[in-house]
Amino acid sequence: MKVAMIVSEMEPFAKTGGLADVAGALPRALGKLGIEVHALLPRYSCVKEKGARISAGPGVTVHFIEHEGYFNRRALYGESNGDYPDNLERFSFFCRQALERLKSDGIRPDLVHAHDWQAALSVVYLSTQLKADPFFAKARSVFTIHNLAYQGLFPKDQYPRLGLGQELFNINGLEFYDQVNLLKGGLVFAGAITTVSPAYAQEIQTEEQGERLEGVLRMRSKDLVGILNGIDQEIWNPAGDSHLPHRYDHRDLRGKGKNKAALQKEVGLPVDPKAFLIGMVSRLAAQKGLDLVVQALPRLAKLGAQLVVLGSGDRAIEESLTRASSQFPTIRLRVAFDSALAHRIYAGADAFLMPSRYEPCGLGQMIAMRYGTPAIVRSTGGLADTVAEDPSGGNGFCFQSIDAGAMVEAVERALRAWRRPAQWGKLRERGMRSDFSWDRSAKEYLGLYERLVG
Ligand code: ADP
Q1: Given this chain, do its domains 2-230+439-453 and 254-434 carry the same CATH topology?
Q2: Residues with beta carbon inside 6 Å of ligand 1?
Q3: Ligand 1 centre and the CA of 283: distance in Å?
Q4: Atom 26, ligand 1: which residue's CA is nearest?
Q5: pLDDT single digits (tens) 358-392
Q6: 71 Cβ partners below 8 Å, 6+ apart?
Q7: 280 CA distance to ligand 1 centroid (A)?
Q8: Could you tell me what percentage of the chain is helix, strand and coil, using 3-state DSSP and rounding each to the nearest 5?
Q9: Which residues make Cβ contacts (< 8 Å) with residue 133, sequence separation at least 6?
Q10: How far apart are CA 229 and CA 232, in angstroms?
Q11: Where are the domains of the chain?
Q12: What is the pLDDT of residues 306-333, one digit of tens each?
């Protein structure tokens, strides 16, 4: 089977977030299953590879779509003063050229898999302008939502630049409250829709979390499925992690205690094995529930817990965290995007906190569990699908309401369990033995592709 993966960012070429992790790992995992994958990506200025295409492992070819004016810029989607105003033109060009490239290179896809609003137009063009093109006659399509909050919205006067007929600019097409909504095009025209966890697939069909697209999603609910993301088990491996001062595995966790002491020292916390150390690694965005953490700081400090937060993003969230944490010597905030420190927090913390308001999948909780660091999460989206609290068989701690008090109670339960080493050891081991690999997810995608292609 030949799959064309159309995506606007991909590890290791260009990254702003989790989408790049998925686009980097999924093609390789599919390649291992015998699929021929062609990934198509804009040639941004950060792409250093030469040539129109390169091989990226067995079965995987990456094709770069070039346009000096559109893609040779400092960032992918926008800079500090906002999104690039011509994003509609940039990404409609990308989608059209990606399909053109397949044709000019004679790559006849069985399936086109497009990701997020930036690539959504490729499935629209496939079902409209290219519908009668024999080259794409057998191509089926899948569209994946990585985060429904980002929809690619543009003023309606830009619609003619898409080259689509006016008959598609209505409630059944790309029109959305008098604007152009590119993501909606993907939802309407794709053969199947996926999102990155089963729980999020349900949540986005509700008014609370549907971002005003719940009606469209409900209409397509029989074609909508949640497939949990995986984590790269080679990058995230406590037994071979070069960022850690001490390596360890589930058979021998002595190194983990040493990493805790090293982390306490590195971030300026009292080096104390008896202090319950909670870690956070997060974008500073409203989605991530850091306001609950700010509210809870006095109570966390009173519990005697230590907290280290690594985050970057929203300036207002950063300021409120900075202000609140400066009063507590047991709370440490690092404002940075620092992958090496992230590894040391996953390894050195006793528990990992993710109080997200919503979470399409979430990688942090899976990474933490792999490092023997049980997660304390708000049960939403992918967090609900991966973390379960159950004294006999669970792998972490959960709370339901978006409420600092509920979060602190979950922390207290975690702290009580941590003080019982036998119980904690079992909990930790269950997390470390869980299969969060891409192999599992890739098999689910392959099953979906096979059902569509027939
Ligand atoms: P999202 O994609 O919404 O940001 P995920 O949990 O899916 O959240 O993925 C976040 C990824 O980015 C994880 O690999 C996490 O370790 C990493 N990350 C987030 N913030 C930082 C940071 N400040 N420094 C280093 N890595 C970070």
Answers
A1: yes
A2: 17-18, 281-283, 310-312, 337-339, 342, 361-364
A3: 6
A4: 339
A5: 999 999 999 999 999 999 999 999 999 999 999 88
A6: 42, 43, 44, 45, 65, 90, 94
A7: 10
A8: 45, 20, 40
A9: 103
A10: 10
A11: 2-230+439-453, 254-434
A12: 999 999 988 999 999 999 889 999 999 9
What is the model's pLDDT at position 306?
A: 97
* Atom of ligand 1 minimally distant from the CA of 363: 6
Token digits for 153? 């919205």
Looking at domain 2-230+439-453, its CATH class is alpha beta
User: How distant, in Å, are the alpha carbons of 3, 12, 248, 415, 454 from that of 450?
Assistant: 11, 28, 40, 46, 6
CATH topology of domain 254-434: Rossmann fold (3.40.50)
Query: 438-453 and 18-32 helices cross at what angle (nearest 10)?
Result: 70
341 residue type, one letter: L
Residue 224 has pLDDT above 90, yes or no: yes
The three-class DSSP label of residue 75 is coil
Structure tokens at 409: 């109670």
Other CB atoms within a 10 A radius of the CB of residue 274 amount to: 6
